[in-house]
Amino acid sequence: MARWGMVIDLDKCTGCQACSTACQMENNRLPGENYQDVLYYTEGKQPTPVLKWFPRPCMHCEEPSCMHVCPTKATFKTEDGVVLIDWNKCIGCKYCMIACPYGVRFYTDEKPLVEPNIKDVYPGEGDLSWNPPYKGPQQDNAHGVGIQPHGVVSKCTFCYHKISKAPKGIADLSNDDAANREFVPACVRTCAPTARYFGDLDNPKSNVSRLISDKRGVRLLDHTGNKPQVYYLSGGAGPAVPSGRGGANKA
Amino acid sequence: MSTQQMKGPVNAAMMAGMAALVIGGGLALVNLMSSGHAAFNTGSSGITWGLPVVGYVFFVLTSTGLTFVASLAMVFGIKEFYPIAKRCIWLALVTLVAGFTCLALELGHPFRMLWAIPTSFQYLSPLNWMGLFYAAYMVLLLLKFQKVNGGDWDSSGSRTLGIASFVSVVIAHGTLGGVFGAMAMRPMWYGPIIPLYFLLTAAVSGAAFAVLITYLTYGNESFMPAKVKNLMKGAMPKVFAAVLGIVILAVVSRTMIGLWSNADGLQVWDHVVASPWYWIELILMVAAFFMLLNGGSPFFPSIMVIISLFIGRYEFLISGQAVPLFKGTWVTGLIDYMPSVTEWMIVLLAVGIVLAGWAFGEKSLNLAAEPAEK
Fold it and tell me: Is residue A248 pLDDT above 70, yes or no?
């Protein structure tokens, strides 16, 4: 069984936000509910401020604190390493949003970020929060895929509706592989500078494993112990700053 | 004791409580039915747990503290506390219901919770244990009140229920502390001492409510029976002051360490102490402490401490989330938050439950009862 993971090469990322847009289209996200976001921030002060950006999906952690705090086991980890939410079991307590160090979870019922409220323009039927004119993936509440129902939390699924249909044993899901292109997550599929890679972290021959190894991939906020399955490449050469306390870390 | 002997504003409290229930409950429900939780000012890019959770923590910890006060007589055998023990148990039930109401209106699916938590049993989640032990506590408290209301104060069954409810609430409040204390990614909350901090603040909250309600029941000391008056002039303010003193130390030490440390996330303490509310909280506590030490009536100190504790709960809950995680473009400094009218109405509803519930108990359940002298 694969253990899906992502590598994002920050040296290649241009901050174009095509990934965020593709994700929004694929997963019917509204402004402010970006499963995949590119965060912009400024470092330094005048006269030498530097504009920076940072692409940030859900980290699909090895030890997801969001899953551990969920009192109903609505948040769970699939055998292939993807952290998902069962909307049929989520009680909307939002403890997972408190416990996620990366801020990548979204509650359905909030004040809209932009007016008019799109949810009012396309009101939902039944329990679903809205009814977009174009719907991407088939509704799959048990895996948190589709239109978000009221009163639950949602998150990036690594486009589970795509990757779960990929052939078993495949090492990487890449645009270069024409036969399997349909199974590539939307953000990876659309990344123009090919800054994103998606594959099996447990397969030493996968491209993602090689990139992490060769270019010293690092994980965000590694000290929290969540152990993300999303790795970032930055620079590559040169000594690396240890991200934890070495031997004191749990394996 | 019959209600005729009570000179306090029980009827007025009932009226005020009913008004708060109708206004708070009505407005909150109308807004929630029409807008859902969009009627809150909470958000995925902002404060996740808002004022209703503050209300929940405030009221359930008050319930915890009231059980501690009742347990002084019923578990630890300090007989001076018997005259207010039954009232404290009833109030513990009422404040627990008020807290649960706040939480239920904050949850996305409160009814789903009833089956999803027990059937899933995620033992790693502090919230699971909190739900389990507060539910057990509620049942035990109800059974204990039923025993006491039937005049059974000292049978082995009644004593066992008293001890069981005390133990369950000690664990329950600890698990509530764990909900926050386990959050390494929220440094203001993080730490193994948070359950102990909750225990102390719960105890002082219970003491303050026990004093306040006793004074409200009788009007003033001159109308109190001798035993109650002796308690309010003797042991009660001493216990109250002792715990309050430790709480003040805990608040100050948390502040000092928060301000001193450079750990990422603790910069929120600069913001906390820059707020006048922090100083109001601290000054009210310290002033109440010295008023209690001076031997005056504990009535005003109880009100001061309750206000102070509510500010403290708000500060703890909201400031603990004010340092953004990875919100980038959308939030550059600390997260701003101002509770919405709907959120305030939920707290008003909870206050209504406490006032009306207490007044109902006072009028119908003979809360002044105590065991017969042996």
Answer: no
